[in-house]
Amino acid sequence: MGAEVVIEGLTKSFGRQTIWRDVTLTLPPGEVSVMLGPSGTGKSVFLKSMIGLLKPERGTCVINGVDIVRCSEHKLYETRKLFGVLFQDGALFGSMTLYDNVAFPLREHTKKSETEIRRIVLEKLEMTGLAGADKKLPGEISGGMRKRAGLARALVLDPEIILVDEPDSGLDPVRTTYISQLFLDVNAQSDATFLIVTHNINLARTVPDNLGMLFRKELVMFGPREVLLTSEEPVVKQFLNGRMDGPIGMSEEKDSATIAAERAMFEAGHHAGGVEEIEGIPAQMQPAPGMPTRQGAIRRKDRVMQILHTLPPAAQEGIIESLSPAEQAHYGVDPLPADIGRHSSTTLDGATAYQPSRGDL
Ligand SMILES: Nc1ncnc2c1ncn2[C@@H]1O[C@H](COP(=O)(O)OP(=O)(O)OP(=O)(O)O)[C@@H](O)[C@H]1O
């Protein structure tokens, strides 16, 4: 099973510029989580802080009892081995074949024989759909293949936590869905804990078990996907619908005069872009046929049912609807009556935004 990551009160600044403050969330073991946020809100800084490449000034990030923020260099080195990281461009060495790129961490960090390394490299290349491409150089393959090669390399040390930075950058929507499928397949096979940072709305709607969003230097929300996907919080709604209408502007945040002027323009008929409300919660992508059942998804069901009563009504309804009749009977829930479900909404302002406590997740 993947490791749990418990983050509390994390605050990161560069000089006098605060990037985000007081971020508290738990990545449940073996579940897939996505962190959304407009450009420049510090998503990449968040990933780098999780692996100890950057040092937040306050707060803790605890993995298997080790606080990454304050531990010794030796502990940090050991704990980093639990991570596999897929950077935006795959971060491959341009002069090495895919085989050597994927073999690199094994040669650097283990004493395995070349025969054993060969077995592992070919297995990971096969797992990521790159069988037969082992002799290619990164410059000879497409962006999508480079990302898959980066993932193969991230997998060779059997990580318990996989961090992915903007997997969709440079990919078309179809290739983005293919790589999303791969994440779910890898998760099914490895039970590793995933955190994917992205602004891709399709991916956010359909891939993760949990969704979070950074905005205005804070974590606006983090919780089961159904909570964000049914949220009435303006910033979350605006982002998930990709519209100009709302608090997010060209350079992150709008002032109230700009919001009012734009509102008048949209009310007068100017299209705010993006899509209109998407009703309901889209079905979550599943591992491909033939893959094992996701153990993280099974544990999540139990976990979410335990906190169900603490969630907003629309999220509760979404969760209950996603259960089969047998599961509804198992958890002792009835489908919600129509008047409290689908069309109900919970308005959350910044101060009271749903934020499950550490124990909840
Ligand atoms: N090493 C650094 N020194 C100083 N400032 C930095 C450093 N790294 C990042 N920043 C600043 O932190 C802010 C957040 O950057 P980050 O790359 O994490 O944003 P992001 O949310 O990942 O954006 P995008 O979605 O555009 O990739 C930016 O203002 C950036 O300039």
TrEMBL record:
Pfam families listed in its UniProt record: ABC_tran
GO molecular function, one term: ATP binding
Region (Disordered): 340-361
Chain ranges of the ABC transporter domain: 5-241
Top-level division of the source organism's lineage: Bacteria
Gene3D superfamilies: P-loop containing nucleotide triphosphate hydrolases
Protein name as annotated: ABC transporter ATP-binding protein
Organism: Amycolatopsis acididurans
